[in-house]
Input
Amino acid sequence: MPFRATIDDETFHYLCQIRRRLHEWPEPAFQEQRTAEVIAEALGRLSLWYKKGVGKTGVVARLETSSTGPTVALRADMDALPIEEKTGLPFRSRVKGYMHACGHDGHMAMLIGAAMLLKEDPPDGNVVFIFQPAEEGGGGARAMIEAGVLDGVDFIFGGHIDMHFPLGTIGIRRFMDTSYTDSMEIRVVGRGGHAARPHEAVDAIVVGCQIVNLLQTVVSRTIDPLNPTVISIGSFHGGTVYNAIADEVVMRGTIRCTDYHTRLQVIERIKRVAESVCQVYGAEVSVNIREGYPPVINTPDAFEIASSTVVELLGPDSLLIIEQPSMGGEDFSYYLEHVHGCFVRFGARNSYQEFIPTHSSMFDFDEEVIRIGAVYFAEVVRRAVARLKESR
Ligand code: NI
Output
């Protein structure tokens, strides 16, 4: 691969070993104890200052070269998913019901690789390595920020393995990279009764179905089609037996928006649909919206640094400018509410691999991406430090 900077095969194998150790012992949000041990051991070998138990189960390391900065942070996520692994890999999960199905094991190995490169040839500034717990819905980023990991930080960079892009490419989106991700619960309370005498009851299932159908028109008929928006009901529960009318239905779903005002409109319309339908049929309703992660919004300065790093390291063809924001969520967004930064997508699909998305029980990636990620992270720090020095 045409790297200007690279890591040798011995180091690469060491990083793959770390990734495989992490892969064998996946741990869910805020329980990443063993994971933290593996990271701490690797950081200890580098004689880097580090602290465990940050933001509950996170680890932070620092490479200090200057008392006045500048300071650049790198972030990897640590948690696994409640998915039973079916890959059959020799290093497959040994923890029943849990799996690193989102590549976070690879992200941690990349960051350790970057720490090795930066320790060997330190930049003219400080580096903070953030190993963050609980990305998958736990909001671990907030816990890390509250623990002070961004104190004195000028820029932050992060990334995610992405099977949509070929190995050797890095995708970056200008401005917004991920969506607002709210979840909702709609509870319809009707009145139970005998299925043979529906006029004596209020059928919560029929009312619930009407709500689900009408919700399909909220996006298609009331939202500007130029603002990508999704409403999906993912679960619908009600009733116990074939000959009784259900008195209650609970629906749960997700709302994805790429625009703040659209998001407020969508939430208001979901409530209006649910309340109106229930009023028509004489049912009661409660709508609970749980606010999720805000969108990742890359700052223009960090976008420039990240994209020029990719071009310099891998060549201009390797930089993929992503046209549309992802409808997924990512809690890297919380860091970007405090400091400038950029989130990238590490292409990880090789030509002989079929496409298997993240969060699949068959998920795996080409480990070469660890080498690319480690070199990218080290180089983006150098460029960010240089930029900050220039502007001082
Ligand atoms: Ni992930």
Residues 368-391 form the longest helix (24 residues).
